[in-house]
Amino acid sequence: MSPGTDESVARVREVFDAFGEEWERLHKDVAGRVSFEIHRRFLDEHLTSAPRVLEIGAGPGIFTQYLARRGAQLTVTDISSVQLVDNQRRITEAELGGVVEDFRVADVRDLSWCADGSFDLAVAYGGPLSYVFEDAPAALRELLRVTRPGGTVVASVMSTLGAYRHLMPGVVDIIMDYGDDANDVVLSTGDLRPVQPAGHVCTMYRSEQIPGLVAQAGGLLIGMSASNWSSLGDIGALARLEADPAHWARFLDNETWACRQSGCLNGGTHLIFAARRHHSDTSDIPPPTPTV
Ligand SMILES: C[S@@+](CC[C@H](N)C(=O)[O-])C[C@H]1O[C@@H](n2cnc3c(N)ncnc32)[C@H](O)[C@@H]1O
């Protein structure tokens, strides 16, 4: 039996309060740098000029800094006060503090402090929706509510099949510790709670589930991408490409293209998607229905 959502979300916050290496995740190796680039390009497609942006689960602020440099007016939030303080310190050191209108501790499940239609774009990269388990449709609905009609929510969640493929030692641990049936449940539900009694937990998704998630939240799915697809394997080979700017630029173009092919969507550790708020009023949005 899974623990309740509140208990699970509190556990996620404790993990990120104690986690000091989040800044390194998208810098330290070539796969991380490609992941940043895939997320950045996807984000770029939804940036208008001088957009008002809400960043959810901003962590130490790799995308905060990118958005600040792109001229966004930012409200920067995270459920972890430790991550938020780190973000603020890094923004100040980068002399970008002027564009952040508010730094705020916030849980994506409760945006009641924020008026309807306040932002052009809401960004929830790196799994905030994966960290709220069965509350993800309601949380995405909140993100759509605080986005203006016609505005966009861009999010990335953890990938069930990508994790299965790329994190096989962890899969084998689950099978050895909990059995094949428990692992089959993880594959079908994406919920790691039954097999992770301590530490990091989340709900992972298959690309086939994203249209349903967006529809339950009352939004319109307008794009999806894996992150990454071909660049999670042979780090040494990729390093050779990265060493040459021309080869690297071409590789990143091809990787961006590959990540969006339907045959590749489930191949990355993350799934990125964009959901648009309908142009009509939020009262047109039907209430969420329970996930089957
Ligand atoms: C993997 S980090 C991603 C950081 C950054 N967005 C990025 O992509 O580099 C996930 C972040 O989501 C935050 N988070 C987890 N659960 C959340 C929730 N319920 N509401 C808001 N943020 C949450 C964590 O504290 C953490 O900073």
Number of helices: 12
Order of H and E elements: HHHEHEHEEHEHHHHEHHE
Task: Briefly note the CATH topology name.
Answer: Rossmann fold
Biggest sheet, spatial arrangement of strands: 3-2-1-4-5-7-6
Average of pLDDT: 93
Low-confidence stretches: none
* Count of individual beta strands: 7
The value of Rg in angstroms is: 18 Å
Domain module count: 1
Inertia-based shape? globular
Specify the CATH homologous superfamily. Answer: Vaccinia Virus protein VP39
The helix content, as a percent range, equals 40-55%
How much beta, percentage-wise? Answer: 15-25%
CATH class reads Alpha Beta
Strand count, sense and barrel status of the largest sheet are:
7 strands, mixed
Which ions, cofactors or small ligands are bound in this entry? S-adenosylmethionine
Overall structural class, as computed from helix and strand content, comes to: alpha/beta
Fold and architecture overview:
With 292 residues, this protein is of the alpha/beta class. The chain has a single domain (5-277), classed as Rossmann fold (3-Layer(aba) Sandwich). 41% of the residues lie in helices and 17% in strands. The chain contains twelve helices and seven strands. It has helices at 5-17, 22-25, 30-44, 62-69, 81-93, 136-145, 160-166, 168-178, 180-189, 210-216, 235-242, 245-259, and strands at 52-55, 73-78, 100-105, 119-124, 147-158, 220-227, 270-276. It is globular, with a radius of gyration of 18 Å. The model has no long low-confidence stretch (mean pLDDT 93). Residues 9, 12, 16, 22, 26, 56-59, 62-63, 78-80, 83, 107-109, 125-128, 131-132 line the site of S-adenosylmethionine.
